[in-house]
């Protein structure tokens, strides 16, 4: 275990940048996983991080001791920081002081859609993005494709909201969704308040690609017109629509239901 | 229309407090609805606000002109502010400068649960709270009961996330949920990863009360033990649970589906 105590240390300064700056994270292709749950999930599902960063007081914490122990047994890198220095790079209030620095996978689309997938066209809110990833993973969907205008999936807020879903998903970013839909070997389903076919009346027992859009504007018209089906989630109240993450959850688990009946 | 140009004006200073301080909002029993959509919804569903506050530049905006016109025709109160003063009380970035000051209804539970309802035990995140209210309203559920430890439903963040759902719901706060469940004339359903009965196997064609809990800890054990049914949403992936708002949406719309089959 290495210890840094000075704010002027070059390695610490890089962590400060990584924590505070989205552009730095994208440029370096790295992000920070903050908190016990994310670090445990990563260790279990993806293996060793580039580095584990712990606050001095967290070294007394049982779950953190376990994480550090696993890393040291496998010759991983552990960096200890005084609590004040750790706090300056953590976004979790009242959290337990542990984080991983990890590489963010960059995937290129290599073939046509052939299995269950989620396509996100300009989803903006990190909480929504994280909730959609989490629901997709819980519903057994593995592939997620995001347009250039969507929120960055590997930001700390999205990571926190997704609760480890990232580590069981294959996430593709900056994807040309129109091309993906045109070449898809599965049906593409978009929800729309104007559609006449109900979600419940579509046969979801084969793989489909779910298409969701921007919180305000929905899926872009040119992309929507490429979808195989437009379906409506029937509403009983006076409220006009669902939050995009709620809408996605309803769709994913209607598919789970149909496959289990 | 009245105009205030000084930051030292007593009425403006009260608005600053109302905008920035949750305790003030609770104490005064008032809140601010920020943005065109919330104001339009309130006018349509609940009627005149105590006051409409507009920025000077927003007075040129078509939808705001329409709102102000409706208020003046019905002798409502409109207050115009210079853009800089408006911006200081608005939490919406790049928004159109219009908000309503409205009374927050305080309801007392007056009888046993007898219709569809949502019971929230310590839901913390304003985005989750708003999404649940929005989904409930869209699914035609009208009654929402929140425990003392839940997020305040009338905070600006919850209001924004709920997109007007507040105005078609009867929301009860600081409710003794255990007493409510004990006296209920409808079944109470809680979701749990440990339950053996699937959501899809419960008959939801009669009214039920849905019980959801804190994001991390779930429903408190003593309350959970009072629920008539514990049900599981089947998961296909390695991710252990759904976000509470996603979970609620799946439940509400499974009920909609069963009632429409």
From TrEMBL, chains A, B:
Keywords: Methyltransferase, Transferase. GO terms for molecular function: RNA binding; RNA methyltransferase activity. CDD domains: SpoU-like_rRNA-MTase. This is RNA methyltransferase. The keyword NADP does not apply. Residues 118-252 form the tRNA/rRNA methyltransferase SpoU type domain. It comes from the Bacteria. One of its GO terms (biological process) is methylation. It holds the Pfam family SpoU_methylase.
């Amino acid at each position: 275990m290495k210890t840094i105590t000075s704010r002027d240390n070059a390695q610490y300064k890089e962590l400060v940048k990584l924590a505070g700056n989205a552009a730095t994270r994208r440029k370096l292709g790295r992000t920070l996983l903050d908190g016990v749950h994310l670090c445990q999930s990563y260790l279990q599902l993806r293996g060793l991080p580039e580095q584990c960063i712990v606050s001095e007081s967290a070294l007394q914490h049982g779950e953190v001791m376990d994480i550090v122990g696993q890393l040291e047994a496998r010759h991983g890198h552990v960096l200890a920081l005084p609590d004040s220095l750790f706090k300056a790079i953590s976004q979790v209030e009242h959290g337990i002081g542990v984080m991983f620095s990890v590489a963010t996978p960059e995937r290129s689309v290599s073939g046509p859609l052939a299995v269950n997938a989620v396509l996100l066209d300009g989803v903006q809110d990190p909480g929504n993005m994280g909730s959609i990833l989490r629901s997709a993973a819980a519903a057994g969907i593995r592939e997620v494709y995001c347009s250039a205008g969507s929120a960055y999936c590997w930001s700390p807020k999205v990571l926190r909201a997704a609760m480890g879903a990232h580590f069981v998903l294959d996430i593709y970013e900056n994807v040309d969704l129109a091309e993906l839909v045109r070449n898809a070997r599965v049906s593409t389903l978009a929800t729309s308040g104007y559609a006449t076919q109900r979600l419940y009346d579509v046969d979801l027992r084969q793989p489909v690609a779910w298409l969701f859009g921007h919180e305000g504007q929905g899926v872009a018209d040119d992309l929507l017109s490429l979808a195989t089906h437009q379906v409506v989630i029937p509403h009983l109240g006076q409220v006009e629509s669902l939050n995009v993450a709620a809408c996605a959850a309803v769709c994913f688990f209607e598919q789970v239901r149909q496959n289990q009946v």
